[in-house]
Request: fold
Amino acid sequence: MNAAKEVFGKKVQIVVDRFHVAKLYGKRLDELRKKELARLRKTLPKEQYKELEEVMWILRKRPDNLELKDQETLEKLFQHSPLLKQAYQLKNE
Reply:
C-alpha cells in the first residue's frame, strides 16, 4: 500500500477486494501443495504418500465442510508439512 501511495499520491483511495485476495491465497496454497507433494513423493514410502493423493480437493474445502476422513487426511499431511498447515489456516482466515 505504501508503494501505491508513493506512485499515485496520498489522495488516491486504496481498495482491497476480498474476493481477489481469497483467489490469490487459494492459488498460492495450490502452488505450495504441488511443491510439498513433490517433496513428499521422494521422501515418504509409497503407502504413506498414496494416503495424501487426494488432498487437492480437501484443501479447497472450508474447514467446517470437511468430513472426518478429510480431517484425518489433512492431519497426516500437516504432520509432514507444517508450512502447508500454516498456509491452509491463513487461507481460511
